Amino acid sequence: MKVQQLYTKCLAEATYYIVSKGETAIIDPLREINPYLEMIAKDNAKLKYIFLTHFHADFVSGHVDLARETGATIVYGPTAKAAFKFYEGKDNEIFKLGDVSIKLLHTPGHTLESSSYLLFDSLGKAHCLFSGDTLFIGDVGRPDLAVSTTITKEDLAEKLYSSLQNKIMTLPDDIIIYPNHGKGSACGKNMSKETYDTLGNQKKVNYALDANLTKDGFVKRVLEGLTSPPQYFPKNAQMNKLINKDINQVITDGLCPISVTECIDYLINDSALILDVRSAEEYTKKHILNSIFIGLEGDFAPWVGTLIKNINQPIILIAPKDKELEAITRLSRIGYDNVLGYVSGGIDEWETRGIITNTVTCVDAFSKELSNSISFLDVRKHAEYNDNNVKNAKHIPLDILHQETTKLDREQKYYVYCAGGYRSVIAISILTRLGFTNLVNINGGFTQIIKNNIPLTKCKKNCGACACSH
Length: 470
Known about the structure:
Elements: E1 2-8, E2 13-20, E3 23-27, H1 34-42, E4 46-51, H2 63-70, E5 73-76, E6 87-88, E7 94-97, E8 100-106, E9 115-120, E10 126-132, H3 153-168, E11 176-179, E12 197-198, H4 199-205, H5 215-223, H6 233-239, H7 247-254, E13 257-258, H8 260-268, E14 273-276, H9 280-285, E15 292-293, H10 300-307, E16 315-318, H11 324-332, E17 339-343, H12 346-352, E18 361-364, E19 375-378, H13 382-387, E20 394-395, E21 414-417, H14 422-433, E22 439-443, H15 445-449
Parallel strand pairs: 3-4, 4-5, 5-6, 10-11, 13-17, 14-15, 14-16, 16-17, 18-22, 19-20, 19-21, 21-22
Antiparallel strand pairs: 1-2, 2-3, 7-8, 8-9, 9-10, 11-12
């Protein structure tokens, strides 16, 4: 028996590959299936099952394409409904795989069909639980994503409590918990950076598994502090119930070189968005007017899904050479399938043709230019801002920047910062596209600011809220 966790950092997502006696199973596959096919071929095995823990909201799964290519059976938990052929598993149903077995545990709460899969080794001993978004390391799945006219987030939270108490906490303490997500995913509030743990340890450190926590107490804890889910979540969840465009076709269509002349035509007709996926440093030095920056270097796919509202938006890429395929693949993971192509020759060809490019004004955090008299714009998350910030900084988190631009003075000069400089450049690209012209990026973000003498809300020397410059 082999169990392999395949972790994708950009999505903070874990897929699982299990092989036993020439038979394999994959749990929660990503959309691109070729890596899985290669693993199966290398093991000289046959894919028997594709298990889904639920209809994912934060990425588009490759289950339909994978089943078509291999003949494997797609398995969902009870109550699941979809446009493709699948097997609706029953609670406590056993699936044989080589000389091991996998038991489906219906664990509703995150969604109604949410299920976990308990793996037993060849001796019949419980080895690990693939817990999906029911139980994370340090947290549980948020219960507000599957709300409908007939069920509330409170209803789902109560179901989640029952699933944890009656299905998961009764399992042996030594089993390994393998969740679907880790730190950075918006599917939970406070996940650990660790991607697996024993159930016994989670009972000690995970608030949701506190044996003394009542149902009412659990519901209150799990619902408090929830922010609105990213706008692409319901769109991805719906896509996962349908038969989508073949991933190989998505990639073929996107890998299309577009000339500078063609790109200009798209811009004139406002029929495509220019998405620059190079590094923040490269973008600030030169970029195409009105292009949006979201670099491959950071949490690329989640920020695309959060900030580009139209999932069918026609996109033209400005990408580093030989990174076009990576960009298209990562976009397809969240259902942004309408990539028209990439600018042939990139930004260099744009300049070669004598067309003016834009720059972003940047300043070092240690510059004397930064003082009490200037206006700062903080685009970090609420928790980051509340932890500490530049005194009197205007705060608008990047994820809601589009909706909050009326709070900004278009005539005002803003010095923009995030934690390290990635999100601030995204913010500047968005605001520039909306007509703001007086924006300065602070290199290194708050990480560098805190080393300087800029007054902070919470003093670096822990003397409390102050305006001093220690």
